[in-house]
Specification:
84 residues; 0% strand
């Protein structure tokens, strides 16, 4: 049973990390004087979320794997857009 609980906690951490990265991304204002600070925070949140996703993928069920891969795709879209 602890394994199942850890698996669920890992998935939830990845889900929460992705949500936090998305929230930061959605709050960025390009013409804001703090744009650089906001980008740095976004980079940290995205990197943390990627780490949480990779950790969760180690124990994820098939259903969770599909969702975690979608989270990775969503985060990669943010990275690609910011790098343009």
């Amino acid at each position: 049973m602890p394994y199942q609980k850890d698996k669920q906690q890992a998935f939830q951490a990845a889900q929460q990390g992705t949500k936090e990265a998305m929230d930061v991304y959605n709050s960025i204002v390009q013409n804001d004087p703090d744009y650089g600070v906001q980008l740095k925070r976004l980079k940290n949140e995205v990197n943390e979320a990627f780490n949480q996703i990779n950790n969760a993928l180690e124990t994820a069920s098939d259903t969770q794997q599909a969702q975690l891969n979608q989270f990775k795709d969503d985060l990669q879209s943010i990275v690609d857009e910011v790098n343009q």
